[in-house]
Automatic annotation (TrEMBL):
This is 3-isopropylmalate dehydrogenase. Binds 1 Mg(2+) or Mn(2+) ion per subunit. It is found in: Cytoplasm. It comes from Candidatus Gallitreponema excrementavium. PROSITE patterns: IDH_IMDH. One of its GO terms (cellular component) is cytosol. Homodimer. SMART domains: Iso_dh. It holds the Pfam family Iso_dh.
Length: 364
């Protein structure tokens, strides 16, 4: 298979981790006989410095003309005082809008090897944690009508969803559940919000087309509580933009390892998806060979699975990561309280070495 991938290294540790992601993709391409070509794209702070704007039109065009987009991270203290509309993070909104990616898929996985980093008690996480949060990304209150009255004493934001918007995100929710444990929980606030009641109606209308999926509903306040009380009950959670924003951060924190979590933002399948680690640009460790590249490497696995339909290749990456962790290799951020012991044993590695280890495991 021949595919073109747009790379957005971005700022901070972005270039370090995207480099490891592409090395891993190359290893997979060599092993499975594919050809991936890459085009570098400027976005974020680096684009502000070069072109005076966070997402030049040319950058978006290159992304749209590719088969998939891999993003490192954008932002950093250097650009903290630029005007709001020119902030590096504007590149993310521009990419999501321009690429029409309306579904954000965030797996919250607790790696058994890293269970010590999970802030929840053993009896709560039990056998582990493996939740997929499907968040609506381009609608709802973040994009709804907003304003203030003339006296500046009142402000409003509007939660608004159309039936087609709900259908397309729930379709991804149902289909994702079918590829996992066949459980879909739609999280809403249907006891109060009319828009949530429409989400429920649409989910119920769609359910007969997915007979193997066990559909349930939960109010968002309860879901926030259940995630820390009994996270093992969830398989796929589908929810609106704002609820998803909050719950996906909560779910990722309870895994205890931000440097491990990948994400995919998908559209209707006619254009490329956007793949990125969930963490930021970590300016404190940029360029020091300290960044954990695994979230980016696992984002590459999602890219192969969702954009190219290469399931075996995606699993090959995931298994390689698992093997490297099983062998006890750690970057600093995931060493936890074992750091000194691991360092003495020579098991603490930097960004590049971690990439090397994953590539070796792919080839083993
Ligand atoms: P951050 O995720 O960059 O860093 C939080 C902490 O986690 C830091 O101590 C950092 O060193 C550590 N960390 C993060 N990723 C790591 C990795 N891969 N390996 C090892 N350690 C890692 O969050 P922040 O400090 O709040 O934000 C820094 C900058 O990133 C800000 O400018 C912010 O706006 C931006 N940001 C960008 C994105 C994105 O591009 N998607 C997301 C979040 C934040």
């Amino acid at each position: 298979m021949e595919k073109k991938i747009a790379l957005i290294p971005g700022d901070g540790i972005g270039p370090d981790i995207v480099r490891e992601g592409t090395r891993v993709l190359d290893a997979v391409a060599a092993k499975f006989n594919h050809k991936f070509s890459y085009e570098n794209v400027d976005a974020g702070g680096v684009a502000i410095d070069k072109y005076g704007e966070p997402l030049p039109e040319k950058s978006l065009k290159t992304c749209l003309a590719s088969d998939a987009v891999l993003l490192g991270a954008v932002g950093g203290p250097k650009w903290d005082n630029v005007p709001g509309n020119l902030r590096p993070e504007k590149a993310l909104l521009g990419l999501r809008g321009g690429m029409k990616v309306f579904a954000n898929l965030r797996p919250a996985v607790m790696f058994k090897q890293l269970s010590a980093a999970c802030p929840l008690k053993d009896e709560i996480v039990g056998a582990g944690l493996d939740i997929l949060i499907v968040r609506e990304l381009t609608g709802g209150i973040y994009f709804g009508e907003r304003g203030r009255n003339a006296e500046n004493t009142e402000a409003w934001d509007t939660e608004r969803y159309t039936k087609p918007e709900i259908q397309r995100i729930l379709k991804i929710g149902f289909e994702s559940a079918m590829k996992r444990k066949n459980k879909l929980c739609v999280v809403d606030k249907a006891n109060i919000l009319e828009s949530s009641r429409l989400w429920r109606e649409v989910a119920q209308e769609m359910a007969p087309a997915y007979p193997s999926v066990d559909l349930s509903f939960m109010y968002v306040d309860n879901a926030a509580m259940q995630l820390v009380r009994n996270p093992g009950q969830f398989d796929v959670i589908a929810t609106s933009n704002m609820f998803g924003d909050i719950l996906s951060d909560e779910a990722s924190q309870i895994t205890g390892s931000i440097g491990m979590l990948a994400s995919a933002s998908l559209g209707d399948g006619t254009g490329p998806g956007l793949y990125e680690p969930i963490h930021g640009s970590a300016p404190d460790i940029a360029g020091k060979d300290l960044a954990n590249p695994l979230a980016t490497i696992l984002s590459c696995a999602m890219l192969l699975r969702y954009d190219f339909g290469l399931e075996e290749e995606a699993r090959c990456i995931e298994k390689a990561v698992d093997k490297v962790l099983d062998e006890g290799w750690r970057t600093r951020d995931i060493a936890g309280s074992d750091f000194e012991k691991l360092e003495a044993a020579g098991k603490i590695v930097g960004t590049k070495k971690m990439g090397d280890l994953v590539i070796k495991a792919i080839n083993d």
